[in-house]
Amino acid sequence: MSLTAALDSARASLMASGIQSSTISRNIAGASSAGYSRKIAVLDNLPGAGVYVAAIQRAASSGLYNNVLTATSSSAKQGAIYDGLQKIATATVDDPELDQSPTAQLNALKKALQQYANAPDNTTLAQAAVTSAKDMAAGLNQATNTVQTVREGADADMATSVANINQLLTQFEKVNNAIVRGTISGDDVTDYLDQRDSIVSKLSEEVGVEMSLRPNGDAALYTDSGVVLFDKTARTVSFTATNNYSPGTTGNAVYIDGVPVTGANSVMPLKSGKLAGLAQLRDNDTVTYQSQLDEIARGLINTFKESDQTAAALPDVPGLFTYPGAPAMPASATVSVGLAGLISVAASVDPAQGGNPNLLRDGAISGNVAYRYNTAGNAGYSTRLQQLIGGMDASQPFDATTQGKPSGSLIDFASSSTSWIENQRQTADSNVTYQKTLLDRSTAALSNVSGVNMDDEMSLMLQVERTYSASSKIISTVDEMLQSLLAAVGN
What we know:
Blueprint: H1 3-30, E1 39-46, E2 50-58, H2 62-92, H3 102-118, H4 123-185, H5 190-206, E3 209-213, E4 219-223, E5 228-231, E6 233-234, E7 237-238, E8 255-256, E9 259-260, H6 274-303, E10 321-322, H7 339-342, E11 344-345, H8 359-362, H9 383-393, E12 396-397, E13 407-408, H10 410-450, H11 454-490
């Protein structure tokens, strides 16, 4: 090898070592930054020209990265469902000591009726029974308010999620364009690639997403149901929030580029992500539980209804428990939407409204004497009270679409409702725990591949420093040899 060739090779080595050193410093600086991936200076050789840095690449694994995206979306969905169900369960079925569940309140009402039946001439016990009935109605009213508040909150969170998605897609478009331009011009785009992955990771929290890579570093985004989120340009995600919710309210669908992805009419429904979880909470779980509450209310009205005690064959009418549709009875075994929020104790039996609590014993709560059971006006009459107590244990049909017990006593149906909401919450809780564990492991696996290990970086830095030192020594030696040669020629 000639001295000139040796000098050129050493100079090339110095330049490559400088870039390597800069890359290592870059890795050390970015080690603590979220989403940063390790950068690698790729070396190559040219005959007669020595080593050079062919490219700057980043450590990455598309398979592990996709696993992280999937786990993030699944965890976000289950988390949204659990948070909503937790609020409902806490307000309606938790803490048995507070007797706030419909089952506990029904049992309390039954106990109050039994005590009254044992002493039907005791007005204080009559008032206690009416108070228990009022607590029962108020509990159903409050449970309805809680469910609708959770639905309204989910709807508002959906609007926030949609706004976040649109913002992230706008950021994605800018970074993706920078990657394409940089790739075509041969620039280092690894930092942009990190930014793009970070944006997609944030996007996966809101909606299940898949990224497809194309030539020149370009990428397209799709939901986990196949709807295009980004292809050359960002697609518009739209949603109109509903400010006030009642049991009969149907929330609006989320649209991506005009395609509905949530709601009953969705042709390509989202499978994961916070948005999917919120939609399921708003449109399915809470609606089902509301239907169960409505059936409990209907069962109460049916159980405490009054029947004609004459030969006139008048229709049954609401008794202790009534609703705005009285004197008609709610349809049997059919959900009357929102009934749990409307049920109340008849004013004629409520002392707080000037009513007579003994009508619970005597009948004719509706005001029509044809429905009077205690026709003789006996203070010790308990037949009607015993009938009401037996009615609470009697089997009756319930709407099968509510996922509660389709046939059984009112207390049995209320218990099945409590079991259902508890099971839904526990299932969501278990799914959250599982998905978070899966996410942690997927993230750790990806970090092992793409993350910065400080020990490795420092070890590599020492190697680069030795290479730099060796190259410097070669240059120094060649310089001395050239000086000697020039001196010899000059003599």
